[in-house]
């Protein structure tokens, strides 16, 4: 069983938070600069119109040559080519000034109008793009056209757009870098939490989630989960304690029962009906004791601390021994038992006796459920980093929906009910496999029957 | 007469042990606590001690350790309610000669006592040829023969036959066979040992010859002179 893999990318909570934050920041910057732009442009626009109006009022006082002089004088102070003028007669013929053509589309009403294209002229000193313009009659019946470039507005717009662009770029780039850095640390912590949690799932109930001294949300969560684990462990120990006590209390009565039955049998005359009956009762008592021992054995094996018998061992002699041990039984049942091994197998770390017991249980089941004429293969093959020990048979196989259940205590396949067996064997196997940290896969054998593959971690070569 | 000391705090179990061993012609003394048990074991003259692992006052493990430290080599069969592997190893390491976990069958216990008593008999130690009737097992050349007929035995069959012949006339249980010949301590299913015995039987008791291996119903096997 493995836990959900923490997402590497945008799904992490810090990524989401940062994305939301960046979006809000950009939106806010946009709004801020937009408002600023609007305010500044409208202010500058007003300012430009105001000054144009002032000029218009100023020149309205003059007439004739005085007006021409005043216009010429004003132009000498306009170094930036912002202002321009043109004096036209009543037929809009140019009389004086740099503007030689009456701007098209400018109403002759003395009001300020904004023109998209200002003056049609090649003179570099004249504004060419959009401008504010006013055409007003002079006292002597001519028309004075005053033009003021609003290009400064355009410059402000550009300035603000640049600011917006840089602002957003500079928000996004450090934001992305920050996101990368920020998501790494929580992810690392999630990974360490995940590692601890997986150890706990694998059966190490004493394990706890790591808590840092930052006291953030992850730590709060870890503390809550740890408190929960404390409670679960306590309850499990209580249950186990009760079970152990019950088991312990049953040992003596069972011993007494078996002993007294045996004595009654010994005392009854041989070959009498009573002796035969007692024999049957004793056989039942023996079955009871065997199952009881099996249960005790499982609870002992499930206590994960029992690794005192672990050594480095070569699986080959172990498998050879198993093969020799089960060969007579297989032959008796008309089943052929084959041993197939790689010529060299890496060493394993394990308890030899327990591995023998586990594999013996698997083999015993395979032989028991394979009909006469069938085949059972005991195999061992080294993969890159693990060794597969396999038991393949040509029996009825284990239906896929029952594969989990066969390792429960007292489980036995439906159609195998007539075969004898304690039904605890596979639970013992499961307990031994868990104790070793190996994996057991149940599948379908190429021979048509069950395939039980034990994946064993190899011993790490030292030196 | 062979004298046995039974140190066991449960009266009913003790009574059954005494009854069973007495029926084997052994003289059994029973003590129900550890301290007295240790005193008796030391002052002794007993040929064998059956020792409960958990006892009031002085623990069974402490008794074994003390006896061995005092140089007393009386064979000890430890009987324990603690069945796990570590406990067994601890008991044997402390100096116990055999270990039986509760719940146990009294015939199993008696068979183990008999084998332990036999094992300390020095005569069998020095023998190089074991004989039961016309069956011979040469411990040096590791060859077996029945009558004049040499037998071709596999290594485990040899070990099995040697174990049985060393204890000829004694009932040997399947559990004892599995422990002694294969060296494992779990329940392999009764059938399996029977199959191995069956194989051996085919070789040493072929048709037409008086069989030497007898099945003792419910208990185990015995190899003995034909009756």
Question: What can you tell me about this protein's structure?
Answer:
The complex is a heterodimer of chains A (463) and B (227). Chain A contains eight helices and twelve strands. By secondary structure, chain A is α+β, with helices and mostly antiparallel strands. In chain A, strands 2-1-5-4-3 form a five-stranded antiparallel sheet, covered by helices on one side. In chain A, α1 (13-60) runs antiparallel to α3, α5 (273-302) runs parallel beside α8 and α7 packs antiparallel against α8. The model of chain A is unreliable at 415-422 (pLDDT under 50). The relative contact order of chain B is 0.10. In chain B, β8 (143-146) and β9 form a beta hairpin. The mean pLDDT of chain B is 88. Chain B is elongated and about 60 Å long. In chain B, α1 (11-23) crosses α5. Chain A binds chain B through residues 248, 250-252, 254-260, 262-263, 265-266, 279, 282-283, 286, 289-290, 292-294, 296-297, 300, 306, 308-309, 321, 324-326, 328-329, 332, 353, 356-357, 360, 364, 421-422, 428, and chain B through 10, 12-13, 16-17, 19-20, 23, 81, 83-86, 89, 101-107, 154, 156, 182-189, 191-192, 195-196, 198-199, 217-218.
């Amino acid at each position: 069983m493995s836990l959900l893999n923490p997402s590497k990318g945008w799904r992490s909570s810090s990524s989401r938070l940062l994305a939301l934050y960046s979006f809000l920041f950009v939106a806010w910057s946009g709004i801020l600069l937009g408002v600023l732009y609007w305010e500044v442009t409208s202010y500058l626009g007003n300012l430009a119109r105001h000054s144009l109006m002032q000029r218009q009022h100023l020149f309205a006082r003059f007439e004739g040559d005085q007006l021409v002089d005043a216009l010429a004088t004003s132009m000498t102070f306009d170094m930036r080519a912002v202002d321009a003028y043109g004096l036209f007669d009543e037929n809009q013929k140019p009389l004086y000034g740099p503007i030689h053509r009456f701007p098209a589309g400018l109403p002759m009403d003395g009001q300020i109008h904004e023109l998209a294209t200002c003056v049609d002229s090649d003179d570099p000193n004249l504004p060419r793009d959009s401008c504010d313009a006013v055409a007003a009659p002079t006292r002597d019946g001519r028309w004075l056209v005053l033009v003021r470039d609003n290009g400064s507005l355009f410059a402000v717009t550009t300035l603000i757009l640049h600011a917006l662009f840089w602002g957003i770029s500079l928000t996004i780039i450090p934001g992305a870098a920050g996101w990368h850095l920020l998501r790494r640390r929580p992810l690392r912590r999630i990974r360490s939490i995940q590692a601890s949690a997986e150890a706990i799932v694998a059966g190490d109930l004493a394990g706890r989630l790591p808590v840092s001294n930052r006291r953030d949300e992850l730590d709060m969560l870890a503390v809550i989960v740890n408190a929960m684990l404390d409670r679960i462990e306590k309850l499990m120990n209580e249950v186990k304690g009760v079970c152990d006590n019950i088991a312990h209390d049953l040992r003596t009565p069972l011993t007494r029962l078996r002993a007294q039955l045996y004595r009654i049998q010994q005392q009854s005359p041989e070959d009498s009906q009573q002796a035969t009956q007692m024999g049957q009762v004793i056989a039942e008592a023996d079955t009871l004791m065997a199952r009881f021992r099996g249960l005790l054995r499982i609870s002992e094996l499930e206590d994960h601390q029992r690794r005192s018998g672990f050594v480095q061992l070569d699986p080959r002699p172990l498998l050879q021994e198993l093969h020799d041990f089960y060969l007579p039984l297989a032959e008796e049942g008309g089943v052929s038992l084959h041993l197939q091994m790689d010529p060299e197998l890496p060493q394993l770390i394990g308890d030899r006796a327990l591995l023998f017991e586990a594999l013996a249980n698997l083999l015993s089941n395979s032989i028991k459920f394979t009909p006469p004429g069938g085949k059972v293969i005991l195999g061992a093959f080294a993969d890159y980093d693990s060794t597969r020990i396999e038991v393949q048979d040509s029996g009825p196989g284990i239906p896929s929906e029952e594969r989990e259940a066969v390792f429960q205590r007292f489980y036995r396949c439906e159609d195998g009910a007539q075969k004898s067996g304690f039904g605890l064997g596979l639970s013992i196997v499961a307990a031994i496999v868990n104790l070793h940290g190996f994996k057991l896969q149940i599948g379908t054998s190429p021979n048509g029957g069950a395939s039980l593959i034990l994946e064993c971690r190899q011993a790490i070569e030292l030196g | 007469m062979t004298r046995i000391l039974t140190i066991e705090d449960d009266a009913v179990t003790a009574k059954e042990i005494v009854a069973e061993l007495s029926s084997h012609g052994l003289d059994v003394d029973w003590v129900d606590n550890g301290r007295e048990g240790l005193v008796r074991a030391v002052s002794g003259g007993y040929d064998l001690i059956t020792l409960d692992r958990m006892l009031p006052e002085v623990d069974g493990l402490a008794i074994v350790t003390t006896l061995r430290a005092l140089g007393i080599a009386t064979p000890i069969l430890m009987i324990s309610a603690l069945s796990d592997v570590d406990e067994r190893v601890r008991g044997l390491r402390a100096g116990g000669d055999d270990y039986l976990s509760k719940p146990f069958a009294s015939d199993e216990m008696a068979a183990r006592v008999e084998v332990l008593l036999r094992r300390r008999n020095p005569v069998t130690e020095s023998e190089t040829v074991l004989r039961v009737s016309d069956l011979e097992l040469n411990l040096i050349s590791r060859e077996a023969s029945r009558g004049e007929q040499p037998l071709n035995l596999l290594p485990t069959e040899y070990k099995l036959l040697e174990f049985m012949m060393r204890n000829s006339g004694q009932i040997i249980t399947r559990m004892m066979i599995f422990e002694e010949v294969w060296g494992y301590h779990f329940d392999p299913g009764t059938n399996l040992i029977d199959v191995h015995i069956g194989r051996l039987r085919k070789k040493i008791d072929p048709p037409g010859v008086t069989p030497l291996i007898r099945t003792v119903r419910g208990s185990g096997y015995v190899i003995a002179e034909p009756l």
